[in-house]
Amino acid sequence: MSMKVLGIIPARGGSKGVPRKNIRNLCGNPLIAWTIEEAKKSKLLTRIIVTTEDSEIAKVARAYGAEIPFMRPKELAADLSTDMDFLTHALDWLRDKEGYEPDIVVTLRVTAPLKTAAHIDEGIQKLIDNPDADAARPIHESPKHPYKMWKISEDETHLEEFLSKSFTGFDEPHNLPRQLFPKVYVHTGAMDIMRRRTIQELKSTSGNKLAYFFMDPKDSVNIDSEMDFQMAEFLMSKRLENK
After folding, report:
1. Model confidence over 158-210: pLDDT tens digits?
2. Could you tell me the residue range of the domain that residue 158 belongs to?
3. Domain ends where: 159, 180, 201?
4. Which strand (E) or helix (H) includes residue 152?
């Protein structure tokens, strides 16, 4: 029996940083279209759905070939709603209404439009090749090292090192070259690849053992602000020119 790999594209209507960003035009297409098109090119995804509470987003997603089997309840599309909220709702609905249960679930974020089908398939393959891993995530080296970060003192009069010397082992790491420090990585946010049991049994999107693969930072822009949107637009236009 072939493996069922479900791509879930979450796209709520209530974006605050960039209003209506999920369907805003980016280089000639609504933002959501870039993720749908790359998902459709994937060799390993066997089904692609969009979960949204917004009828306009649903209409645009359908026009680009995504499936909308249900509308997400509005209370699961609030500012503080979590990934577990929409994932659990989607998996429960598909099981109860269709008897459908995927082996692997891939959350594909609209806000990372520069990811490609190759990235998606690399992530899925990474999880398949690591049977003891609960999930996999794309990473790249952190642009800011946490050893150089600050916090404001409780009385709000001065800065204090965010991490103490007992943790870093360095005097004044903020004045040292980062090449002296251990490498630190961040999740790109482009996608999460999870076994269904990780979500349903471990109640987690990362589980206990998390596999990884690398994405180039230029493919990993995550749109949270107007400046991010402009950066994504610039990089996408360069990519299209090179094609």
Report:
1. 999 999 999 999 999 999 999 999 999 999 999 999 999 999 999 999 999 99
2. 146-180
3. 180
4. strand 150-152
DSSP 90-132: HHHHHHHHH----SEEEEE-TT-TT--HHHHHHHHHHHHH-TT
With 90 as the cut, is the pLDDT of residue 16 above it?
A: no
Domain count, the chain: 2
Q: Which ranges in 130-220 belong to alpha helices (H)?
A: 165-168, 196-200
How far out from the chain centre does Cα 23 lie? 17
DSSP sequence for 187-229: E-SSEEEEEHHHHHTS--SS-SSEEEEE--GGG----SSHHHH
Please identify, among 132, 159, 180, the residue that sits at the C-terminal boundary of a domain: 180
Cα 141 → chain centroid: 16
243 in helix, strand or coil? coil
